[in-house]
TrEMBL record:
GO terms for molecular function: kinase activity; metal ion binding; phosphoenolpyruvate-protein phosphotransferase activity. This is Phosphoenolpyruvate-protein phosphotransferase. The gene is ptsP. General (non sugar-specific) component of the phosphoenolpyruvate-dependent sugar phosphotransferase system (sugar PTS). This major carbohydrate active-transport system catalyzes the phosphorylation of incoming sugar substrates concomitantly with their translocation across the cell membrane. Enzyme I transfers the phosphoryl group from phosphoenolpyruvate (PEP) to the phosphoryl carrier protein (HPr). GO terms for cellular component: cytoplasm. The active site is at 190 (tele-phosphohistidine intermediate), 500 (proton donor). The keyword Cytoplasm applies.
Length: 577
């Protein structure tokens, strides 16, 4: 038996077998090249290839999730022409191989970042190194470790590596992936982010883990404490079984709630739906439908504007899989952090406040009409609804609805069947939409609150900037009062209101959403059971009387303390009593 002590980074315990990802350290030696232009072109092709790979992974992650944020950060580095320009210049002027020029530039820049006093900026050194290493491997035509499907059906792996990049995750069979152990990386590394996003345990900073591990041997991984036990003896296995049994007992309560409709103790029905970013993703049997189908994956995963027929097939497939359950299709939300090169979108100084989402769609109407025709046709395949993102004015909503009607007229003229009475929703994610939600409610059939952007815009705090993370908090009184305002205005107009941001799945906040009168919570598939359990423990009417006092507290910290007491009172998570 061998015991390795690292840093616990993502919670959970698992028994699996070792799978080593023993890629060597990236290196490059200088050499003279004959065709300098062709050599520089290798970098351009590698960047385009890596960008496409990151985009395919990105669209499968929920907007605002930790995994999405780190992938966005990698894409930002990859798109930085200023960073890569000296590499191209050196290759053209010195006649040296581009992989060596890139390695030198990456190490110099990462070294500068690593020396900075600011922890956030210092942590970016690892991101720069990983992005450039992935490009160098592509330039060199290196073959990465094989992390395809396991030879033994049902086998579960704990992957051991020096470090991992998002590109490495693309090669993994996620059905087999049970945990990570890395020699490098900190608690905020991309490895940890991916592990938490996938709901699997992780240990980082485990010295000599690759040398100690043997492919195929049994490993016990404790993501809470950082302990890794290789080839465990009977005593270690017995202790693991006790730990696992305790965790399974806690989970059993959530599993029992999974098969029931979610309703509060006083009978308030809450629909628990899922957020999807890929039409090929499985829809859980016991959810109430798709509360958010992100359509960016079709655009970001293509090298051309997707046709009406291509989009229709994707949307209709999800609607058919839902079997009559709700499917809310959010129209295109590209711009800001999400770019499709073939659209040739102009660079903007502040893209999050620029021409993105509904603004882009109203600017490029033919692109929008193509999508709307596909959505209307897919409406005949199930209970489909359409939702417009980033609405900030009544004019935008009315123009979007007029284009939806125009798309229907085009289909009718062509003799193409479509759903003519499709419900239209508004995604509430800007302070402007909150302020006019009373007016929007009379023009829309439903609301869905996107907390990720709503927090960011309300608090004027970039959710990817650790220096202002103290502001990016859903429990801020400003954010919670905004959500209450939207819920009230929806109730007055008699339309349902849901939530599809990360906050929808937080069991600490579930009592709050029930008390505010939300009708639907849309979460990632892995969180359906936990959300249903939390809803089922709450007396919404009793909590509603406590809302004014709760929202009058001074700040996010005080509100969280009060919510923690409510969680203990109602036991909205197993073991929270």
């Amino acid at each position: 038996m061998k015991v390795i002590e690292g840093r616990g980074a993502a919670p959970g315990c698992v028994r699996a077998v070792v799978r080593r990802c023993a890629d060597g350290a990236v290196s490059a030696v200088p050499r003279t090249v004959d065709d300098r232009q062709a050599e520089a072109e290798k970098l351009r092709r590698a960047r385009a290839d890596y960008a496409a790979a990151l985009s395919r992974l990105r669209v499968k992650e929920a907007d605002g999730s930790p995994a999405a944020d780190i992938l966005d950060a990698y894409r930002e580095i990859l798109d930085d022409d200023v960073f890569f320009e000296p590499v191209v210049r050196r290759t053209l002027s010195d006649g040296l191989n581009v992989d060596f020029s890139l390695l030198r530039e990456a190490r110099e820049t990462a070294g500068l970042f690593a020396q900075m006093d600011d922890p956030y900026l210092a942590a970016r050194a690892g991101d720069i190194t990983n992005v450039c290493d992935a490009l160098i491997l592509r330039i060199q035509g290196a073959v990465p470790s094989d992390l395809s499907a396991p030879a033994v059906p049902g086998e579960k792996w704990v992957v051991f590596a020096r470090d991992l990049t998002p590109d490495a995750a693309l090669r993994m069979d996620r059905s087999a992936l049970a945990g990570f152990v890395t020699e490098q990386g900190g608690l905020t590394s991309h490895t940890v982010i991916l592990a938490r996003s996938l709901g699997i345990p992780a240990v980082v900073g485990a010295p000599d883990a690759l040398e100690a591990a043997v492919d195929g041997e049994t490993v016990l991984l404790y993501g809470d404490t950082g302990r890794v036990i290789l080839d465990p003896d009977e005593a270690a296995l017995a202790a693991f079984r006790r730990d696992r049994d305790g965790a399974e007992q806690l989970q059993a309560a959530c599993d029992a709630a999974m098969i029931r409709e979610a309703a509060t103790l006083d009978g308030q029905r809450i629909h628990v739906c899922v957020n999807l970013g890929d039409s090929g993703a499985d829809l859980p049997e016991h959810c109430d439908g798709v509360g958010l189908l992100r359509t960016e994956f079709i655009y970001l995963g293509a090298d051309h504007p997707p046709t009406e027929e291509e989009q229709y097939r994707h949307y209709a497939a999800v609607a058919a899989q839902a079997g009559g359950r709700e499917v809310i299709i959010r129209t295109l939300d590209i711009g800001g952090d999400k770019q499709a090169e073939y659209l040739a979108l102009p660079r903007e100084a502040n893209p999050f406040l620029g021409c993105r989402a509904i603004r882009l769609c109203l600017d490029r109407r033919e692109l929008f009409l193509t999508q709307l025709r596909a959505v209307l046709r897919a409406g005949l395949s199930g209970n489909v609804k359409v939702m417009f993102p980033m609405i900030a004015s009544l004019k935008e909503l009315r123009e979007a609805k007029a284009l939806l009607a125009q798309a229907g007229a085009q289909l009718r003229a062509a003799g193409t069947p479509f759903r003519g009475d499709m419900p239209v929703g508004v995604m509430i994610e800007t302070p402007a939409a909150v302020q006019i939600s009373d007016a929007l409610a009379w023009e829309a059939d439903f609301f869905s609150i996107g907390t990720n952007d709503l927090i960011q815009y309300t608090m004027a705090a970039d959710r990817m900037n650790e220096r202002v993370q103290y502001l990016y908090d859903v429990c801020s009184p400003a954010v919670l009062r905004s959500i209450r305002t939207v819920a009230r205005n929806a109730a007055i107009a008699g339309i349902p209101v849901g939530m599809c941001g990360e906050a929808a799945a937080d069991p600490l906040l579930a009592p709050l959403w029930c008390a505010m009168g939300l009708n639907e919570l849309s979460v990632v598939p892995a969180q359906v059971a936990r959300t249903k359990y939390a809803v089922g423990r709450v007396d919404a009417g009793a909590l509603r009387a406590r809302l004014p006092g709760l929202l009058d507290l001074d700040g996010a910290e005080e509100i969280r303390t009060a919510l923690a007491e409510i969680q203990r009172e109602y036991q909205t998570m197993p073991g929270s009593e």
